[in-house]
Amino acid sequence: MNSGNFFAELKRRNVYKVAVAYAVVGWLLVQVATQVFPFFEIPNWAVRLVVVLLILGFPVALILSWAFEITPEGIKLEGDVDRRITRKTGRKLTALIVIVAAVAAGVTVFRFLHSQQAIKAAKQPPLVVAIESKSIAVLPFENRSEDKANAYFTDGVQDEILTDLAKIADLKVISRTSVLQYKSGVARNLREIAQQLGVANVVEGSVQRSGNRVRVNAQLVDARTDAHLWAQTYDRDLADVFGIQSEIAKAIADQLQAKLSPNEKKAIEQPPTIDLAAFDLYSRAKSLVLTAGFSATSAPDLRKAIELLDEAVKRDPSFFDAYCQLAWAHEFLYAHRGFDHTPARLALAEAAVQAATKLRPDAAETHLARANYLYYGLRDYAGALAELEIARRALPNDPRLFELTGYILQRRGQQEEGLHNLQRAMELDPRNFFTLQQIALSYQALRRYAESIAALDRALAIVPENAETRADRGLVYLFWKADTRPLDQTIDAILAQGPGAIVSAAVIWFNCALAERDPAAAERALVALGDNPCLFERGISLSHSFGEGLLARMNKDEARARSAFETARAQQEKIVQAQPDYGPALCVLGLIDAALGRKDLALDEGRRAIALMPVEKDFVNGSLVLQYFAITAAWAGEKELALQQLEDRVRGPVEGNMLSYGALKLPPFWDPLRGDPRFEKIVQSLAPK
After folding, report:
1. Which residues is 230 bridged to in the sheet?
2. Contact (CB, 8 A) for 673 and 643
3. Beta strands per DSSP E along 42-170
4. CB 164 within 8 A of CB 122
5. Hey, is 214 helix, strand or coil?
6. Which H or E element spans position 315?
7. 8 A C-beta contact, residue 292 and residue 332
8. pLDDT of 120-164, one tens digit each?
9. pTM, rounded to two decimals
10. Element (H, E) at 207
11. Quick one: three-class SS letters along 626-637?
12. Intra-chain end-to-end CA distance of the chain, in Å
């Protein structure tokens, strides 16, 4: 049979049409499988099996179409078929192809539009909600004093007015963290600011302090119409500054027709202190505390704030608000990144809470202070939630209540509910950079990476030049898709700004270099790190010396690696001795001992760390301890134990990113398991779909 006759025979026997029909039906089946299987929690290998079977079935279908023909009497060998029937069969097959192709095209278009809508939704800012008429933002006041050192005093006056207004349940008041960014002394577009903050009204003002006199100007503006609703100038003795603040708050509430209960009126009229010098110290400390959560200098800033607050309460032992701030600063140092997780630090926090309780046992701020202590210090989540519920009645506009509730729920393993509360906190504090970072981390724990990037974009809209957050955005692509290119581009852009620009993002640079197995870049990143950790997430912190050990081992320089890990162990052992009941610190010690080849000791330390920090007690740190124990087991040669830990942890939401697709696929932490079929199956199960 010549080639012309062969192709004509293919056409006559409907082989071409069968091929097209098979391809169209196969495409439709793949679309249905990828759309429907996940809904019924059918594993991903089932989708791959469908694809493989369709590919294997294609040549079989062509052979059958050559040998057989479908007729009204059934399937017959091609040689036994009446030729007049084949034309009818061909027309029916053509009609079938058209119908199935239309269905397949519809499914494809639906999936494309659905994915585009999801991408667009992830990039969009939160939906604009109706702005309440009784919503307000108190913008930073201008310091008109000749002595520029009075700027903290001016900040304190503005903050007290905001705090007084926030005590009124009938008002929606934006937190100070969000309004701090709209500095005084520059032209401010009130309408634009109000839209960004989601309020109808703004308060502007100025403070001039001279000797024993103070002049405070304040005005209330309806930002929707630029109408000035109220304005007043107060020129009085400096000692009466707190009276001025309460008068301003009451006048604004009156203008907005906000209901003021007797208890709220009493709270507004109560001055924070009788000592103006103590108030100055408190105002300076509070400014440091407000930014400590997202500052590269968190620990030293908090320690400086504690010094100022200690001096403030020494001057005025009845300074209730100062004790509340002091308690929080101690608690944050105790709990955050293992800065100072020592019994001595916790005792200082407890003493500050007790002092506040003694002064005002029933105040809402006291209940909030207790909630913070129970959460950060004792991990008593039920007790903390109960205290927050009491505090909520008198602090309706305080985003800290929703923020802390969110953290507590996440520690209890309720990730979605925790995220919802963080989003509620953002409504009252819409430009809080730190909370947006926490929301981004919450999305990563849920493996909702596109939404994490959208949250980081919102954070960068507030502080565009923040190097750490810019790098964090690129890091999401590494975790999500094992793609280091966006992070590489970001790091190059930061480095181009000068050698000092990369410092806050150096830890991310180092981890990117590890993922790319780039020793030269890792060495440069370690230099930029200085004495800072080479990796940290929540309670886990790996020292600079540990990073040197990792790099040396990657370069197969075993002598240097062992020396670095020995140094890291000596440092970590001191931390464990000071924090004997802190699971994450002991977990890191176990990891270092595994790196040094001390198998039994490493596994024992890892198991004790798990006992100290079980996931039932603290889902966040407990998950991290289990993840790093899996690495410890892998480094100690216990592959079965490591794989069992991995399989148990990857099934649901996880804290940290060590169990993300990119972190499992690229960096050297998991090298002892590479090539093992079970490990590779785990990695592939997390690949982006």
Report:
1. 220
2. yes
3. 68-71, 74-77, 135-138, 142-143
4. no
5. strand
6. helix 298-315
7. yes
8. 433 444 434 467 889 999 999 999 887 777 788 898 899 999 999
9. 0.74
10. strand 201-210
11. HHHHHHHHHHCC
12. 47
